[in-house]
Amino acid sequence: MENFKEQIAVILEGPTGLDREEIKLLLEVPPSPDMGDYAFPCFRLARTFKKGPAEIAAKLAGELGESPLLARVSNAGPYLNFVLKRSVLAEDILSRIREGKQVYGSSSRGGGRAVVIDFSSPNIAKPFGVGHLRSTVIGHSLHRIYTFLGYKAVGINHLGDWGTQFGKTITAYKKWGSEAQLKRDPIGHLLQLYVRFHDEEEKDPQLEEEGRYWFRQLEEGNREALDLWQTFRDLSLREFQRIYRLLGIEFDSYQGESFYNERLAGTIAEIVNKGITRESQGALIVDLGEDMPPCLLRKKDGATLYVTRDISAALYRFEHYRFAKALYVVGADQVLYFKQFFKVLKLMGLKWADRCQHVPFGLVRFKDGRMSTRKGKVILLEEVLNKAVQLSREIIAEKNPSLEDQETVARQVGIGAIIFGDLSNDRIKDVEFDWEKILDFSGETGPYIQYSHARICSILRKEAPSAKAPVMGEAYTAKEEEALLLQLGRFPAAVERAADLNKPSVIARYLIDLARDFNQFYHHCPVLKAEGDLKQARLLLADATREVLARGLYLLGIEAPEKM
Ligand code: ARG
Q: Given this structure, which CATH class describes domain 2-84?
């Protein structure tokens, strides 16, 4: 909207005696749209005019006459409020969508600065649970949003592939494992072994010692231990990648916890050198002050911890990417953990410590227990995804049996429903997962947005707007047209806000409103049955809506089928 500031500044220059740049700095966008599109505060003029600001506002409002830009200028207290002509606004928005120099809503505000996004990051040898889904879809969307705003987003899957638990897994596998079962269902088998280890450990305290032994072997580079670990890792990763493929997600790096092994000794030495550590019963810790428990860096048996690897990773990432921001998309159950971890970075005197940010999210609850697995504990994400695709398949077969390529559309809609069902909630809140709700084509759902998009595509297949038809702002006179246009105009701000808050839900909510505004418009304003210029104008408005719906879905990581 900067261009309008310039034009208003030209109008105000004479009457106020201020120069243009100064006026542009003073112009504000009022908090509520019914106060006008811009407001000019008159406080600055009090001295020159030797009057109170409210009086000046009233005088200026009376003086400013007709203008091709403005529908109305009025005074409200010390402010001068400007309402742009709707036709001017319409032309501006539609031409930016149609032929803007850059894709509508995108910007270069990031200036190529790096934003490192640590997301998904499941633990190997454990099932990929619904909890990891949240991190995966939120992180992926943030990656797209930051890229769209001109940042260099780096998506890192900080795989949980190291830690004392692998000493236990190795011990259990050596005792009770089966190669055949491992090949058939790697994660299932490893999980079963892990559970068994914990059961037997209660009876046989010797086991714990053995687990610790094998983790030490791993950390010391024992071949047998490493080979087993490597197998577990490869097999787990293969399973995870099936899920990422289903979701259409890629990472820039898979450097997980194990990657930092070789660096840990150096990291610990660096922390010790800062003089912030102390020994406590053989362990190495950092005191974090009154309000937080200390941070444990190394256990008395020499084993390193999750946080030791995170500190090492942060140092590495800064060295490598010189990030402007480092986001950690991890559940709210790790809030204290991240506070401790970041506090250590701060105590180390790292000037970039403040650039690290935890992006937490709430839990997923299932409305009905139908999706729980046999063991009743973890809900497997892959089952959820497959079920969503299956349900979409059934809905399509019933509602649109002649649709081409139903398999692809079922996947796009099913996966889209799951992603949107997650991202339409403020991430900090717990999500209630309800099959009926997320697949409802008329509710606040992914399929509803996709369906609105497909519906526009179908209109435009019947008649596309002429590429040469000029944008005609005066053609839009219905209130539904105005509402839709203004909503289209809010897209860039929604994208920025989503980035500022690290909340893709801002875009999801925006799309729900946009789809609703479009459907209102379509209900009240005939498009294909309109005539001449009006028809062209409405086709153009529909086309712009299609563009923004598709772009918004893309930013959430959701596909937009043209037919469904
Ligand atoms: N693997 C961890 C978990 O599943 C999440 C890791 C998050 N990233 C990090 N750098 N700590 O809980």
A: alpha beta
